[in-house]
């Protein structure tokens, strides 16, 4: 993309597959060293290896992003190893869909922990060196569900909406240190997460809601995240960028 990155290092959560993997690859193609985080070591490990095989700089770290202690330890280790992290991409996420009347407290909590509390754990663990350096990027991958709501996704939509307030508040708290905090809100993107929507009648119902008449590609999200991480996006903070093929127009 020919963007400017001054020897930056990034943590991308959920980088083992789908959107996170595309974000990691796109940042790495711009010369950023990417720490690929996912829950399954084989998943983040192979994402990092693929980047290295293409001549990029990458390492991997398997950690459950919803586990406060594990993320705290991971952040300490990363700061010891690298001195600090410049770019944090909070992308890891899960769904456990159900209507309110059938949703268990366990499924509510799991989705809040993995999608929303994780953002707090990572930001808290990594922000101090960013403030000292007076440069940083925090980019949060939310969802159109968090903007317009979606029946059957009460836990997920609530977590994704929370990420927006999280990003805007951090933008205000950290602006004097030149740390920006933004949100990218994808619509339907072709990944494992949406595999059940990509075939048959369901797929037709989904496509009927999308003016551009296709599922997004993970790269469509990665391009926006990478731009927001670059020097060129220096003056953008506290914003929500919807990348959804026109679904929420
Ligand atoms: P995906 O294909 O299901 O991949 C999810 C990634 O998150 C995987 O790498 C997975 O790790 C990681 N992950 C899940 N739980 C984790 C945990 N507890 N700790 C650490 N890593 C964890 O999902 P995706 O479609 O790429 O979605 C990425 C983000 O975009 C999510 O936040 C999702 O909510 C959001 N989003 C997606 C869409 C869409 O249409 N796909 C739309 C709107 C928003 P492993 O690989 O190790 O299993």
Put simply, the count of helices is 8
Overall mean confidence score, pLDDT: 98
Ligand set: NADP nicotinamide-adenine-dinucleotide phosphate
First-residue to last-residue Cα separation: 27 Å
Q: How much helix is in the residues?
A: 40-55%
CATH class: Alpha Beta
- Please name the CATH architecture: 3-Layer(aba) Sandwich
Overall geometric form? globular
Overall domain count:
1
Radius of gyration: 17 Å
Side-by-side strand order of the widest sheet: 3-2-1-4-5-6-7
Q: SSE order, as H and E?
A: EHEHEHEHEHHEHHE
Structural class: alpha/beta
| CATH superfamily membership | NAD(P)-binding Rossmann-like Domain
Let me know the largest β-sheet: 7 strands, parallel
Count every beta strand, where a strand is a DSSP E run of 2 or more residues: 7
Instruction: List segments where confidence is low: pLDDT < 50 over at least 5 consecutive residues.
Output: none
Give the helices and strands, then pairings.
Elements: E1 9-13, H1 18-29, E2 33-38, H2 41-53, E3 58-62, H3 68-82, E4 87-90, H4 105-133, E5 136-141, H5 145-148, H6 154-174, E6 179-186, H7 200-208, H8 218-229, E7 240-243
Parallel strand pairs: 1-2, 1-4, 2-3, 4-5, 5-6, 6-7
Helix pairs in contact: 1-2, 1-8, 3-4, 4-6
NADP nicotinamide-adenine-dinucleotide phosphate (NAP) binds next to helix 1.
Written account of the structure:
- The chain is an alpha/beta fold and 249 residues long.
- It has one domain: Rossmann fold, CATH 3.40.50.
- The chain has eight helices and seven strands.
- It has a seven-stranded parallel β-sheet with strand order 3-2-1-4-5-6-7, with helices on both faces.
- Helix 4 links the parallel strand 4 and strand 5.
- Helix 1 runs parallel beside helix 2 and helix 3 packs parallel to helix 4.
- The longest helix is centred in the middle third of the chain and has 29 residues.
- The chain is globular, with a radius of gyration of 17 Å.
- Bound molecules: NADP nicotinamide-adenine-dinucleotide phosphate (NAP).
- The site of NADP nicotinamide-adenine-dinucleotide phosphate has 28 residues, from helix 1.
